[in-house]
Amino acid sequence: MRLGIMAAVDNGGTLEQLIDQARVSHEAGVDTFWAAQTFGLDTLTALAVVGREVPGIELGTSVVPTYPRHPMMLAQQALTVQVAIGNRLCLGIGLSHRPVVEGMWGLSFDKPVRHLREYLSGMMPLLEGANVRFKGDVFTVRGAISAPGAQRPTVIVAALGEQMLRVAGALADGTTTWCVGPETLRNFTIPTIRQAAADAGRPEPRIVASLPITVTDDVDDARRRTGEELAMYNSLPSYRTMMDKEGVVGPADLAIVGSEAEVRDRLLELKAAGVSDFNAVIISVDIEERLRTLSVMRDAR
Q1: Taking the CB of residue 201, how many other CB atoms lie within 10 A of it?
Q2: What mean pLDDT value characterizes the chain?
Q3: Which of 87, 101, 123, 298 could bridge to 109 as Cys pair (CB 3.0-4.6 Å)?
């Protein structure tokens, strides 16, 4: 199982902080450094800079919203980042959420599964260097992109529901999850996307599972802090559905917290379920907890 760390940079974070965190992650021996696209820095632009400063580690977006970006524009930007960083990008994309798409951007969130299917149908061939002639109900994509030296990045989708997983399995390289627990991953997420990929004749998909984690001697405090820091996810329907499916109250109940042995066992459980990548959201109060957590993550590879 590959190991990743999610950038701990909020909307007020600086580019220098992102570079420093990527460098520390690389030095810690993890495989991928992930960064979110929220309402601060543009993530792909930032990762192009990060990759010039920090060699040797995969850089991933978790995730870039599709709605405000035409498939050709996102393909062009992703290939440019590939050139800048020596083809180390994992392009994670997602729909975002209705309150953001409609409330902040003024766009329609109608038929999101159709949106994703057409988006991937137009973007994936562009990333592979094809001259595309695609016409759907939502998107028209006609043309090609020239980015000498760029290879197609791995493309993963923040797919949670069954229809989204099936589209991701058929057209992309895998999925990245958040607020999805081990039982749901084992019994629903992984078998659904694997079957869709097999039906489409595609390779076994990459499964990136992201969860809060920390090795700590104070489990109650760690869960309390996790619940407070991640409370917003309780109100987003797609995440709420996944937590209900797992039978938990909130993100705090999904957090991997406890002793070295307890955390290692939880990570090995994810690995056995078929998770190919663990993307750690480290919730720690001090450097000792963080170092203990990283040590256990490496042991659970």
Answers
A1: 7
A2: 96
A3: 101
Is 12 a residue whose pLDDT tops 80? no
Domain with residue 55: its CATH number is: 3.20.20.30
Could you tell me the residue range of the domain that residue 205 belongs to?
Answer: 2-299
CA–CA distance, 240 with 27 (Å, rounded to integer): 35
CA distances from 138 to 96, 113, 119, 127 (A): 17, 11, 9, 20
> What is the phi/psi pair of residue 267, to 5°?
-65, -40
pLDDT of residue 284: 87
Give the separation between CA 4 and CA 108, rounded to whole angstroms: 33
- CA-based R_g, the chain, Å: 19
Q: What is the mean pLDDT of residues 176-196?
A: 98
pTM of the model: 0.96
The domain total for the chain is 1
β-pair type (89-94, 58-61): parallel
